[in-house]
Amino acid sequence: MKCPVLGVDGGNTKTAAWVTAEDGTVLGRGRAGCSDIYGAESTEAALEQLDRAVARALESAGCRTDDLAAACFSLAGADWPEDFDFLREALRRRGMTRNVSVYNDAFAPLRAGSDDFTGVAVVCGTGAATGARSASGATWHASWWQDVQGARQLGHRALWAVIHAELGIGPETAMTAGVLQAYGAGSLGELLHDMTRRGGRRWAHEVSAPVLVREAEAGDPVARSIAEEQGCALGDYALAACRQVGIGQLDCLVLAGTVLRRSTVIAQALCRRVLEEHPEARAVMPGLEPVAGAVLLAMDSAGITVTEATRARLAAGSSRG
């Protein structure tokens, strides 16, 4: 085995780790839960999930930490300078000492979609992330500068849209039946009671986000308005990211995350907003998973040349899940 590399994509919903050979062949995989040091129950819980994903990937690849030529961790929760210091030290204590890099979770998708690792990436899944890198190497990620967006906000907006419709203080919407079904409730009164009563369930708002996406695609005016508003807001952050790193003419706009893959309404609204200021920009939805982008960053760190064949092997690994 020739100096394998490790790539890790850690988010609020899941953490994925891949060990690959220099040529991009996936040797081992590991999955675990939330490794966001802000989003998990505790910092220790986040690191436990990170450990679990890495350990599973290394075990399935049949290698050890000190076999790695490089490792890259693209993580939700890598926000402020002290977060990077904390995560690097935590990784050092775990034996990750050779060519280890830590990025915010917006950057693995950017590397996955941009051959030269320049441009802007907008990630919209459970939450949202925006990252940019200029040709000079300047980087910026939105982190806590960014509004609460993604499936959580969409689900929240969907719920209140159907509540307002029920009370007659908002327009009727086709989302009502789907929202009730998503939460397994017979009526909005039953749902609200279950959500808010003492000892009740604490529902995750993202449960109803797929309903909004589906109805927006079907043309429901209320759902479509919310979706387009989200897309425009995400586009505003992409434009802000360009300004932060001095990109005068954006070439590559990378779109990633479950919401953007499933919602053409949101993706198109985002692109329209960006194209208003950067008409030459091309939107890219990578065929590689974000974890494959982390692998590419690890290869960069190790001085491994990435070819089309490398990307093809990583894409084949992505298609196998």
Can you walk through the features of this model?
By secondary structure, the protein is of the alpha/beta class. The protein has two domains: 134 residues, Nucleotidyltransferase, domain 5; 171 residues, Nucleotidyltransferase, domain 5, CATH 3.30.420. Helices cover 48% and strands 17% of the residues. It has twelve helices and ten strands. The strands form two sheets. A five-stranded mixed β-sheet has the order 3-2-1-4-5, sandwiched between helices. It has a five-stranded mixed β-sheet with strand order 8-7-6-9-10, sandwiched between helices. Strand 6 and strand 7 form a beta hairpin. It is globular.
Q: Tell me which oligomeric state these chains represent.
A: single chain
What's the shape? globular
Task: Report how far the terminal alpha carbons are from each other.
Answer: 23 Å
Tally of extended strands? 10
Count of discrete alpha- or pi-helical segments spanning 4 or more residues: 12
Q: What is the name of the CATH topology of the largest domain?
A: Nucleotidyltransferase, domain 5
Q: How helix-rich are the residues, as a percent range?
A: 40-55%
Q: Which class of secondary structure composition applies to the elements?
A: alpha/beta
